[in-house]
Write a structure and sequence with these properties.
heterodimer, A: mainly alpha, 13 helices, B: alpha+beta, five-stranded mixed sheet, four-stranded mixed sheet, 15 helices, 22 strands, globular
Chain lengths: 314, 521
């Protein structure tokens, strides 16, 4: 198992380096002059030259990439040219908001989705199963931005139950949780349906397997068979999907952060790309990539723990 | 509102707070104690800026977003006067007078000081604040607004003379009452290494900086050392909300007391204004125009350019793109400012007959042009109307959309053809003409308009003290722009604000907030 974990971590490191290099190249290839964008109409030739030097833009692209990785290993991601703040501090300031949003969204979606999926599989073709099916497909079909806007209009504007903007007062956990309700509802809702359908299909497959029939023949309790034997196997594809889903939730978070005016990595990436604030773009992209790679790697490791066949197969 | 008050006083907790507490308990066992309510009633002004702050250093702040905060926490010799007409009033200065074209004497009030123990405000602080902006080593991005400054002479502890290199009229409308006029503490800044980032080191205004949560909000609280009229609010929370629609929803949800709204929402809000609110519309200083690149061979023919000027129907653009909430413009200088023209040379309505005649005279046929546009819905609609207008005279127009950073780099593109552009403005005409001088060609003068008379007017009008003459000079400058055939002026847009009737906002004539003067009703 330890060998498998090391192998996965090594692969994760290679993926991160490749992805970040690719993104570095793409960002520098897109048109738009960062100096003009940053300095605005007051840019003098002297200021332009000074800023170019400070951003390292006067160096060839391969050197810039090497410098980025060398500095990254020292924990230095450069400074934001507008405010002069360290990029690391900026990214770490925004990261918790996005992580909290993603974590809460996927957690509630997984709890509800797995419960619904199990219920549907155990009560196959019942009225409850059919209703859960309709509900699941319905929520899958509704995009996150539609949920965002309607939930805002209903729960924030009309009913005034939840706040419409912000992430809550720093240091005030209840207030921060309160501000998380609508955004996490918006991006987690479609995942409830997706996970429920996936768990139902996996459960039905596993419930039809020989060892489950044997367990039934031995007279084991139904709940024991369902949750101890069947769900453990049926959950495997769901774990993988949740791992990959974290990455998709990152992109959904961008829109949600804008609609709800929440701070976060997604909003930071958008703002910094729009202004061609390269150091901040790269810092944010690096951490987004790390989240994605870490979540998929973690999903693989959990899969291997739950099912020894996975690690042997690899 | 009444119902809410009754509910509040009767039960002590409303549905929102009840659900908040219940959800907190349910969602987090880690929550400590009883839920605390962030939006508790209190003497708090909640407002919105359209972007996050960039710098709290007047030498590096980048426009209104930073200045809205700096204007409340720093003092200037003079401040903009709230109201419908541009003007200034004394702030940190007890008196200020122009001794001659290049000398301005001032005396500071004796009750001005800085927080964090940095002592009284002195003439040395004024000298330091102004001279650092023109210091080559500092590389201040706001240096052009102080460009006429030679030095500040300190004549006493609280008295001094601003010495200019040449007469400079914008001193009274931009330099002193806007960003560069903020007076900072010499001691505090020197201790901080000569410049600061986003955290002010000492405040002197009625409010002081409490906190900044990046991408979220800035909070100001009253300055306990302030000796002037007491600050009206216990806290001002300025939320940094980029999206106007998100800000409108936040207002309707009761989370903001004051915000600018989109022009597209004006009609809806007029018909269905949230309770206890006021919608106020202000003329803006921004200017929007269609530019034509004079260096592009496709647009060398002046008759073609004049035909385009005549074919564009501005009232249609006002109706479709601005929902009738903005007025057509006559130039780059807005009403209320010196140099504003009552009428443009080419008119506002399309004159198809004239346009077709000019096309015929141009001898051009099968003309196909590209209009470069920033990717915002208002611009796309405007470009589509222009496309339809020009189709009527046989000119095919392709709309070329660009995102922000790409668009703002187009000035260097020599192949640029038509461009729909929009510049910000400060309340002095010098700021508007400065982008269209020959020296700016290919930088911010995207039309590559080059006119010696225009350049001379721009230079001379800066120091013209006869206001009637100055007004005529800037009118002539806009005539020259229009006569070149390179410009069709569209609008100055508008600033619609919505606010609760429990506050009395203090606004500049263009609708931008001066938080230090906001009051409660």
């Amino acid at each position: 198992m330890i060998g498998y974990i090391f192998k996965r971590l090594g692969l994760a490191a290679i993926i991160t380096v490749l992805a970040v290099t690719l993104l570095f190249l793409i960002i520098h290839m897109i048109p738009g002059d960062p100096i003009t964008t940053m300095l605005g109409p007051r840019a003098t030739p002297e200021l332009r030259a000074a800023l170019e030097e400070r951003m390292g833009l006067d160096k060839p692209l391969p050197i810039q990439i090497v410098l980025f990785f060398t500095n990254m290993l020292r924990g230095d991601l450069g400074t934001d040219v507008f405010s002069g703040r360290a990029v690391t501090a900026i990214v770490f300031g925004q990261l918790p908001y996005t992580l909290a949003l993603i974590f809460v969204s996927i957690t509630w979606a997984a709890i509800l989705g797995i419960t619904l999926g199990c219920y549907s599989a155990v009560n196959r073709n019942s009225l409850g199963d059919r209703l859960a099916g309709i509900l699941s497909v319905s929520v899958i079909a509704v995009p996150a931005f539609v949920v965002s806007l309607y939930s805002l209009l209903l729960f924030a504007v009309k009913l005034k139950w939840f706040p419409a903007i912000g992430a809550g007062e720093p240091g005030n956990l209840p207030d921060q949780i309160w501000h998380l309700v609508l955004p996490s509802l918006a991006i987690g809702l479609s995942w409830v349906g997706y996970i429920a359908r996936l768990v139902r299909a996996s459960m039905l497959e596993v419930l039809g397997e020989g060892h489950i029939r044997t367990a039934r023949a031995f007279g084991l309790p139904k709940s024991w068979i369902t949750y101890k034997y069947a769900l453990r196997l049926a959950i495997l594809p769901t774990v993988t999907v949740i791992g990959v889903g974290m990455g998709f939730l990152l992109s959904a978070a961008v829109f949600t952060e804008i609609v709800f005016s929440r701070p976060g990595l997604g909003k930071l990436v958008i703002d910094s790309i729009t202004t061609r604030n390269y150091p901040v773009v790269m810092g944010s992209v690096l951490f987004s990539t790390l989240i994605f790679v870490a979540s998929t790697t973690l999903a693989d490791i959990i899969n291997a723990l739950l099912d020894p066949r996975t690690r042997k197969g690899s | 509102m009444k119902k809410n008050n009754i509910e509040w006083t009767t039960t002590g907790i409303d549905r929102r707070h009840f659900l908040k507490g219940a959800s907190t308990v349910a969602l987090s066992t880690a929550a400590v104690g009883m839920p605390q309510f962030a939006n508790a009633a209190g003497n708090v002004l909640k407002t919105r800026s359209y972007a996050d702050i960039r710098s709290m250093d007047p030498a590096f702040s980048q426009g209104v977003v930073d200045e809205e905060i700096q204007g409340a926490i720093y003092n200037k010799l003079i401040q903009f006067k709230p109201g419908s007409e541009w003007g200034w009033q004394l702030d940190a200065a007890a008196s200020i007078e122009q001794a001659d074209d290049t000398h301005i004497n001032f005396a500071l009030r004796d009750d001005m000081g800085f927080t964090n123990g940095f002592g009284a405000m002195t003439a040395e602080d004024v000298k330091y604040s102004f001279e650092r902006i023109i210091d080559e080593k500092l590389e201040s991005t706001n240096k052009p607004d102080m460009s006429a400054l030679d030095h500040v002479e300190v004549t006493g502890e609280r008295t001094g003379t601003i010495v200019l290199k040449n007469a400079f009229q914008p001193l009274w409308s931009i330099t002193l009452p806007y960003i560069t006029g903020n007076i900072i503490s010499k001691k505090a800044f020197e201790q901080a290494g000569g410049k600061i980032e986003t955290k002010p080191v000492a405040s002197s205004g009625p409010y002081m900086h409490k906190s900044w949560e990046p991408k979220q909000k800035t909070t100001l609280v009253p300055n306990p050392d302030w000796k002037g009229e007491a600050a009206a609010f216990d806290e001002i929370q300025i939320f940094h909300i980029d999206d106007e629609k998100a800000a409108e929803i936040a207002y309707e949800a009761g989370q903001l007391d004051f915000t600018r709204v989109s022009l597209g929402s004006v009609e809806r809000l007029k018909a269905n204004l949230p309770a206890n609110s006021t919608l106020a519309e202000f003329p803006s200083l921004f200017y929007v125009w269609v530019g034509m690149n004079l260096d592009n061979p496709k647009l060398k023919n002046i008759k073609l350019r004049q035909a385009i000027q005549a074919a564009i129907d501005v009232p249609s653009i006002m109706a479709a793109s601005y929902f009738g909430a903005a007025e057509p413009s006559t130039g780059i200088i807005a009403p209320g400012l010196s140099g504003h023209r009552d009428q443009s040379l080419t008119g506002i309505k399309a004159n198809l007959e004239k346009a077709k005649k000019l096309m015929a005279e141009s001898g051009e046929s099968n003309v196909s042009l590209k209009i470069s546009v920033l990717n915002k819905s208002v611009n796309v609609t405007t470009a589509q109307i222009i496309q339809a207008n020009l189709a009527a005279i046989g000119v095919t127009v392709e709309v070329d959309l660009h995102e922000g950073a790409t668009f703002w780099g187009l000035g260097e593109d020599k192949t640029l053809e038509l461009v729909l552009n929009r510049y910000s403005m400060t309340p002095d005409p010098y700021y508007a003409t400065s982008w269209f001088i020959t020296e700016q060609a290919g930088v911010w003068n995207w039309e590559r308009f080059a006119n010696a008379e225009f350049d001379k007017i721009h230079k001379d009008a800066q120091s013209e003290s006869d206001l009637v003459k100055r007004d005529a000079m800037y009118q002539r400058a806009q005539d020259l722009m229009e006569e070149s055939g390179a410009y069709k002026f569209i609008t100055h847009e508008a600033t619609p604000n919505v606010y609760r009737n429990t506050i009395v906002p203090a606004l500049r004539p263009d609708g931008l907030p001066l938080y230090r003067y906001f009051k409660k009703d």
